[in-house]
Amino acid sequence: MRNFRITKKQILIQIILLSILGLSMYLVGQRTFLKNKANEEVGRALEVKDAHGNPLDCSGGSCETKTLDVEIRLDKGKLEE
């Protein structure tokens, strides 16, 4: 049988690799959070009206209308910097 010895260098490499894995998982979650927050901000600042000036319901990421004649306005004041 072989005699396996674990050195300090091997332990240090394993700790570094596990730390990188944990940090990567954290950063992936952060990116998703920031993207969702940006979508919410744009949704609040976006105003869509039909040809008669009536606001359209754009919940769920799409707007329902029977005409292509729409007005889209972005209120920059509602966007956070």
Structure commentary:
- The protein is α+β, with helices and mostly antiparallel strands and 81 residues long.
- The protein has 1 helix and 2 strands, in the order αββ.
- A two-stranded antiparallel ribbon has the order 1-2.
- The chain is rod-shaped.
Topology of this structure?
Layout (H helix, E strand, L loop, with lengths): L7 H38 E5 L19 E5 L7
Antiparallel strand pairs: 1-2
Looking at this protein, list some descriptive labels:
single chain; 81 residues; alpha+beta; 1 helix; 2 strands
In short:
It contains one helix and two strands, in the order H-E-E. The protein has about 80 residues and is α+β, with helices and mostly antiparallel strands.
Shape: rod-shaped
Low-confidence stretches: none
Helix share bin: 40-55%
Secondary-structure content class: alpha+beta
